[in-house]
Amino acid sequence: MKAAIFKGSGQPLAIEDVPKPKPGPGEILVRVAACGVCHTDLHYLDHGVPTFKKPPLILGHESSGTVEELGDGVANWKKGDRVLLPAVLTCGSCEMCRLGRENVCLNMKMYGNHVDGGFAEFTLAPAKDAIAIPASLPLAETCVVADAASTPYHAVTHRGRVRPGDRVAVFGCGGVGVNTVQFAAATGASVIAVDIDPSKLEIAKGFGAAQVVNAREEKDVVKKLRSLTGGGPDIAFECIGNPVTVKQAIECVRRGGRTVVVGFCDKPVELNAGRTMFFEQEIVGSLGCRPVDYPRILDMAVAGRIRVAELVTGRFPLEQINEAVDTLRGGRGLRNIVVP
Known about the structure:
- This protein is α/β, with parallel strands linked by helices.
- The protein has two domains: 2-147 and 289-339, Quinone Oxidoreductase, Chain A, domain 1 (Alpha-Beta Complex), CATH 3.90.180; 150-285, NAD(P)-binding Rossmann-like Domain (Rossmann fold).
- It is built from ten helices and 18 strands.
- The protein has helices at 39-46, 95-98, 150-159, 175-187, 198-206, 221-229, 243-252, 273-278, 294-302, 321-329; strands at 2-6, 14-17, 27-37, 57-58, 63-70, 82-85, 88-89, 109-110, 122-126, 131-132, 167-171, 190-195, 211-214, 235-238, 258-261, 282-285, 312-317, 335-339.
- The strands form four sheets. Strands 3, 5, 6, 9, 10, 17 and 18 form a seven-stranded mixed β-sheet that branches.
- Helix 3 (150-159) crosses helix 4 (175-187).
- The radius of gyration is 20 Å and the shape is globular.
- The model has no long low-confidence stretch (mean pLDDT 97).
């Protein structure tokens, strides 16, 4: 089969012929319909973030496709079934899984990190982890639910605990940020989107942002957000992973407010701990999504409460995957998908 091989940071992905995997007991082989290109992939490609499995490795953790072959003991799927593969595979038996927090499973395995991912014609999946895609949703575009939509759903619903009427600020309007906007808006919150790109702020309006703030044009973003909300947002989501915006998100929330860190940041962030203590503010992290929530997200898409297909702004054949990555590097569009 054809696959895009990651050989190390600073190197382009190489299109090569590799052996097609064979499903073992309890596994299914999935013919990949599409796989989304995510900023996490850029961390491996450009920023030297190591993968758990040493290269060579097939990246890609936002996959959808059809069941091609069944391993021994698999009875709940048949060839041709449409499936979504979650970005992270869980063990189901560790302490975190037994507490219902499978997204921070002690034995988690992430596609394109611990195991080969979806930038290929075929990929393997445990049969227990695949999710059926409703017939009314487009097979290829629905791949972005695996991460770009599910991560914001978890952040908004479980970590941010957004309620109708809440005032919410979202820092960053890329794929994850725009979905944070649309899930918060779907919950009934009044959302302010913050970015430095006017085109992304316009997109955020289309996905439910009531107001926008261009951080490049504002002298003091924190002061602006406090002014727009009469004291500060109830909840702020940082969806970039930048120390500056993490600090702004923490500082802008009102007394008793909550900041949810969604973007990956590997640098120190300055924190006024006294203010956090005195105003009883919360700072929480948010990672991925629980397996039980994927069908709920798909149901929201079927009902039209969230939009999925419109999130995909670029489609690339596998042979042009490096062009798709370049588009992401340039900050153009929301989500590119690779179609093998």
